[in-house]
Amino acid sequence: MAGVTKAVLLAAGRGTRMRELTNELPKPMLVVGTKPILQHIIEGIRLAGVTDVLLIVGYRADVVRDFFGDGSQFDVRIDYATQVVQDGTGKVVELAREFCGSDPFLLSYGDILIEAANYATLTAPSADVEAIVSVKRNEDVSKGGAVFVNDKFELVDLREKPLPGEPTSPWYNAGVYTFRASIFDFTARLQRSPRGEFELTDAIRELAQSGRKVQAFELAGSWADVRDPEILAELNR
């Protein structure tokens, strides 16, 4: 199968934990090193053969649009979609349905930095795989999702922020995915989670438990969820 050439990047949130740092900028536009987080991601996926990018924008969308334009300076084609209501990651993916059509696509949160070499694996799913979920070992799963796998390293369950005493796993959902169009069947029927949001992770769990193959993939090298000012400062040391 030809590699994945489309990517959907989620860049709609303000990132309130960043406090005054995001008064003027959406979180994915904060600078790490010499460039915005989002630019690191776009340059990394371009190296893996991605040519078409959908940026899902919301808070201070103008900053993102002004910086990236049509994408030509980064050797990609960029489209934009606006998330009007912040009601969870599950419904955001719905905004990509038209852009993706029947093609497979990579999806990344706009504040996740990974070693660019990992994108090559994520953009080359084997024919029998419906989705790839990237994972890291020994992160604090109470801050994100615990990924449960079988002996073939296929995802069998995914639990958002397990509480003490609940089942847990050493594998942390690292926030970068590959999907085929089948994911839209599952995001379309999402119900609100206990947090009141439509969770992408619920759709992934349903996909896996419907008998489709969802492969876990351990990211190599460094990984960062730029979730707060402390992590940003650490990355810029």
Give the CATH topology.
Spore Coat Polysaccharide Biosynthesis Protein SpsA, Chain A
For the residues shown, what is the average pLDDT?
Answer: 94
Distance linking N and C termini: 41 Å
Q: Compute the gyration radius: what is it?
A: 17 Å
SS summary, helix count: 8
Helix fraction bin: 10-25%
The counted number of beta strands is 13
CATH class: Alpha Beta
List keywords for this structure.
27% strand, 8 helices, Spore Coat Polysaccharide Biosynthesis Protein SpsA, Chain A, alpha/beta, single chain, two-stranded antiparallel ribbon, 237 residues, 13 strands, 9-stranded mixed β-sheet
What is this structure, in a nutshell?
The chain is an alpha/beta fold and 237 residues long.
Topology:
Elements: E1 6-11, E2 31-32, E3 35-36, H1 37-47, E4 52-57, H2 61-68, E5 77-82, H3 89-94, H4 97-100, E6 105-109, E7 112-114, H5 118-122, E8 131-137, E9 145-149, E10 155-160, E11 171-179, H6 183-187, H7 200-209, E12 214-218, E13 223-225, H8 229-235
Parallel strand pairs: 1-4, 1-6, 4-5, 8-12
Antiparallel strand pairs: 2-3, 6-11, 7-13, 8-11, 9-10, 9-11
Structure description:
It is a single chain. With 237 residues, the protein is of the alpha/beta class. It has a single domain, classed as Spore Coat Polysaccharide Biosynthesis Protein SpsA, Chain A (Alpha-Beta Complex), CATH 3.90.550. Helices cover 24% and strands 27% of the residues. It is built from eight helices and 13 strands. β4, α2 and β5 form a beta-alpha-beta unit. It is globular, with a radius of gyration of 17 Å. The model has no long low-confidence stretch (mean pLDDT 94).
